Amino acid sequence: MPSAGASGARAGLEAAIQGIWERHRSDFVKGVEDLESAVGALLDGGLDEHGRAHAERQAHKLAGSLGMFGRERGTELARDIERALGAGGGPRRSDSLRLSRLVGALREELGDESNAPEPQDDGAQATDGSLDRATLLVIEGDGDLGARLTTEAESRGMRSRAVRTPSAARAAVAHERPEAVLLDLTLADDSAGALELLSEVSRSDPALPVLVLTSSDVFTDRVEVARRGAFGFLPRSLGTVGVLDAVEEALGRRTAEEARILVVDDDAAVLAAIRAVLDREGVTVTTLDDPLALWDVLESVVPDLVVLDVDMPGASGIELLRTMRGDGRFRNTPVLFLTAHTDRETVNMIFESGADDYVPKPVVGPELRTRIENRLERIRLYRKLAERDGLTGVLNRRTAETALERLLRNASLLEQPICLAMLDLDHFKQVNDRYGHAAGDAVLRRFGGMLLAEFRGEDVVARWGGEEFLVGMQGMTSDDGVRRVAELIESFRTQRFTAPEGGFFQLSFSAGVAAFPSDASTVADLYRVADEALYAAKKAGRSCVLPAASLPAAALAR
């Protein structure tokens, strides 16, 4: 038996599809009217080739779209009309009676549109409720600050809402599912309550990025805030403009991590229905009704998956795909076709042009979602393999370098510190020599898991090579970073690893810490200075963490 959640989602999708039908029914009726005009011209002996081709195309569009809205009989009738209009050298006058009956039956299938609402712009109206949710939820105790932030957010086209109590915040998070949360730690003059709220919101499912507003004289313990899952820190001194700049940066990064799908079809109703089927958490859907504008949109969206219609005016989907495959940037982008033509010749052309899959029109929602989910799952797997260290699950070095450059740019923009720690497992070679590489791999996996559990949000966690790891901490001074790493050292010392011959062994690690801007102003210099501090910590012969500030000036200058 389906769950209540699944039943609710299905009912919501059905309501969304019905709403799209109501808004676009006049477009379908216009298509039928064009068919009626063609039949009338045929009766009068005045149906020329241009009129016949136009009518055939209208029938083709109706055949490909009506079934998406539960009008399967309409799809069958439209296909019969399309075949009659395209057979041989075109319909003869003697075919007009049969065509007239088919078109009349098709009009009956569309129903009475006299009470239908006027068509509306799909971009301005929610299809499943998701577009009505707030992009940004502001949780703060100062009504004036909340008003300024929401006003600035609205001016940027960002839906927003401000609440002033923890209970209102919990209700808003549960029912509206905002894309980002801005939490003022002075909420209701209750720092403990604000921290508890931070823990709840940042660890919700799915996770929400929580940006924390801090003040230099109120609750400066950033380590505790980071431990509770804060995505980033924003000083009040930034003002409303600076705070919203940072929010947009956070939302931009989150969007970049989502799967991006570009759907190209010249039928607005089909696009709206596909968006309703695909639009959900973790997926960004962009629709395009002008195939000739594909290139500009491709370059701006850089989609993970492209869905193309085969038959479109100006350029067919097959022509578009051949153009994509000729460009190195999009040569390997997965492409799925939608087509009302499922004959062998068309299907062969689809795959010969480089397509990955196709779905017959009219598209049935569950089938389309399943096909696309399968493709996205492969994309996620490939992305994980490309960006993550296969053994530990943390970022690999190449991906971490890019992430750290972004972290430094953001810190410069917001005038915030960042802290970089280089971590190295002590005497790790002895583990491999004594217990074997399988035991060494188990240590690395456990250590990587601890790092991922401890560091969240904007933090960058990577395996730098061998038994050496790197952590970049957003909003942390050198003292903050030393404290976080020192606590992790103590926690790791308590870990027990099973030896192959029985019994247990334990391990420790050492670390060096450098901070921007106090110790270095570039990522390369942060690596170097933190590595010098790590070398000094290892040379001390005991598990410890050393800040760069503790090194001689000569070491920092090298």
- The gross shape turns out to be elongated
| Strand segment tally | 17
CATH architecture of the largest domain: 2-Layer Sandwich
Helical fraction equals: 40-55%
Biggest sheet, spatial arrangement of strands: 2-1-3-4-5
pLDDT < 50 runs, ≥5 residues: 113-133, 554-558
CATH superfamily of the largest domain: Reverse transcriptase/Diguanylate cyclase domain
Tell me about the largest β-sheet.
5 strands, parallel
Give the C-level CATH assignment of the largest domain: Alpha Beta
Overall number of structural domains:
4
Question: What fold name stands as the CATH topology of the largest domain?
Answer: Alpha-Beta Plaits
The helix count comes to 20
Defining traits:
558 residues; alpha/beta; Rossmann fold; five-stranded parallel beta sheet; 17 strands; 52% helix; 15% strand; disordered C terminus
Offer a concise description of the structure.
The protein is of the alpha/beta class and 558 residues long.
Description:
This protein has 558 residues and is an alpha/beta fold. The protein has four domains: 18-110; 130-256, Response regulator (Rossmann fold); 258-387, Rossmann fold (3-Layer(aba) Sandwich), CATH 3.40.50.2300; 397-557, Reverse transcriptase/Diguanylate cyclase domain (Alpha-Beta Plaits). Helices cover 52% and strands 15% of the residues. It has 20 helices and 17 strands. The chain has a five-stranded parallel sheet, with helices on both faces. Strands 7-6-8-9-10 form a five-stranded parallel sheet, with helices on both faces. It has a five-stranded mixed sheet with strand order 12-13-11-16-17, with helices on both faces. Strand 8 (305-309), helix 12 and strand 9 (335-339) form a beta-alpha-beta unit. Helix 1 (4-43) packs antiparallel against helix 2, helix 3 runs antiparallel to helix 4 (96-110) and helix 5 (143-155) crosses helix 9 (239-257).
